[in-house]
Amino acid sequence: MPAALSVNLNAVAMLRNRRDLPWPSVTGLGRIAMAAGAHGLTVHPRPDQRHIRFSDLPEIQTLLNSEFPSGEFNMEGYPTDEFLALCETHRPNQVTLVPDDPSQATSDHGWDFVAHKENLKAVTKRLKDNGFRVSHFCDPDADERQLDAAAEIGADRVELYTGPYGATFGDAQAQAQQAERLGTTATLARERGLGVNAGHDLTVANLPPLVAAIPDLAEVSIGHGLTADALEHGMAGTVRRFLAALGHAAPASA
Asked: Considering 44, 51, 90, 136, which one is annotated as catalytic?
C-alpha cells in the first residue's frame, strides 16, 4: 500500500496572513486537496500564529469530520501545555511532536530521544490516553540507541526529517546517499515496532527514490513543495501529481 499523503496547510495560511483578508482560504484549499484524493491535512499551530491560526483549527476539524470523515487530521508542534490543550480540544487523529524552538522558521532536526526520554514518555502517554496516534520527529541518521529510546517512550511512529535529502536536488549521487541513510534509519525503526512517516522538502521528483528506499513508508506530510507546485498546476492537479509520485493509481475518472 503506497504511503498516505497529508497536505500541510501552513504555507497556504502564511500567504493568507500577508493581508487582513480571508483569501487564499485555508479550508477551501484543504477541501480541494481532499477532494482530489489527499488522505489528510496537517497543521502546525505555532504560538505566534504566523501561519496556521488557532481559529483555523475548528474549521479544519469540521471540514474533515463533515465532508471527509475518513480523512486524517494531523497536528504537529512542540509539546507545550498550550499545544497539548489544543490537541485535546480539536481531536486530531495523529499528533506529531517536534523539538522546535517556537522562534524557529521551520523544523530542522529530530528529537534527542535519550535526553528527553522521561518528558516525552509523559507527554506521549497523555496524548495516547486521549486516543491519538503519536509520531515523533526523528533525525535521518538516528542510531539504535536513539530508536530504542523512541520505542520505550511509547511512540507509535517516527517522522523522518527529510530536509537533508530534499537539499540534494541536482546531485543524484548525494540524493542516493541520503536515501540510503533514511532507509537504514527506517529499518531500525521498524525493527522496534515503530511505523515510519517522512516529511520536509519532499517533491514530485524526489518522492519515488524515497519510496524505493522505504517501501513500507506509512505517510508523508508535504507543505512547501506541494504549495509551490500548486501555483503552477493548481491544488487538485498537484495532489494528483504527488499521489502518482507515491505510487497511487490514478482514479478512474482522471
From this structure: 44
> Which residue is catalytic, options 39, 90, 136, 200?
200
Query: What tens digit of pLDDT does each residue of 155-178 get?
Result: 999 999 999 999 999 999 999 999
Q: Please name each of the domains of the chain with its CATH number.
A: 4-246 (3.20.20.70)
> With b meaning 16 or more CB within 10 Å and e meaning fewer, what string describes 32-46?
bbbebbbbbbbbbbb
Catalytic residue among 76, 90, 136, 159: 76
Is 251 exposed, middle or buried (CB count within 10 Å of its CB: 0-12, 13-18, 19+)?
exposed
Q: Is 248 a catalytic residue?
A: no
Helices 235-246 and 26-35, interaxial angle, to 10°?
50
User: 39 an active-site residue?
Assistant: no
CA 236/CA 219 separation, integer angstroms: 19
Helices in 17-116 by DSSP H: which ranges?
A: 26-35, 56-67, 81-90
Beta bridge partners of 158: 136, 196
224 is catalytic: no
Looking up cell 507515491 gives: 246
From residue 10, alpha-carbon distances to 43, 46, 172, 249 in Å are: 6, 10, 29, 27
Pick from 31, 27, 42: nearest CA to 94: 42
pLDDT, one tens digit per residue, over 9-37 is 999 999 999 998 999 999 999 999 999 99
